[in-house]
Design brief:
It contains 4 helices and 6 strands. It is α/β, with parallel strands linked by helices. It starts with a strand and ends with a strand.
Length: 145
């Protein structure tokens, strides 16, 4: 099984996603502050033997790379993250469709109730793989730690 991690770096926090490329399934999704994200990456790497780590090439990407290299993690690849946040809003509503009357409101006018960092990480990984991944309803975005 091929496991990849995708990270959407931000100013104070980042979205982190773990996926199985062979089955095309998302395994876990988290939001972490920049100080502790590398602990989660190390934990997942020990448990799943991660093949690649994908990082958006925007804000703080070099800081994240340096933190991972400090922990001897070098299988890092960067991907263009332009417009990924906007696309994540639409992807959010695909995963969790709005209910009731909101189904009829154009998606451009709806703002997801949750933080989108992990969904942006999903978009980045899907762009890297050039394929869509499956997000089970059982997977909830959690805060790390």
């Amino acid at each position: 099984m091929t496991k990849l991690i995708s990270i959407d770096p931000g100013h104070k926090k980042c979205g982190i996603l773990l996926a199985d490329v062979k089955s095309r399934d998302v395994i876990d999704a988290r939001i972490s502050n920049l100080e502790n994200f590398s602990d989660l990456v190390c934990l997942w790497n020990e448990k799943y033997h991660i093949e690649k780590i994908i990082i958006g090439d925007g804000t703080n990407c070099k800081y994240l790379e340096a933190k991972l290299k400090e922990k001897k993690i070098n299988n890092i690849f960067f991907i263009d993250e332009r417009e990924s946040t906007l696309r994540a809003r639409f992807r959010y509503w695909e995963i969790w469709p709005p209910n009731f009357i909101f189904r009829f409101v154009p998606k451009e006018l709806l703002f997801p109730p949750e933080n989108l960092d992990a969904i942006v990480a999903l978009i980045l990984l899907e762009d890297f793989l050039n394929q869509r991944l499956n997000w089970s309803n059982k997977i909830k975005i959690k805060i790390w730690p």
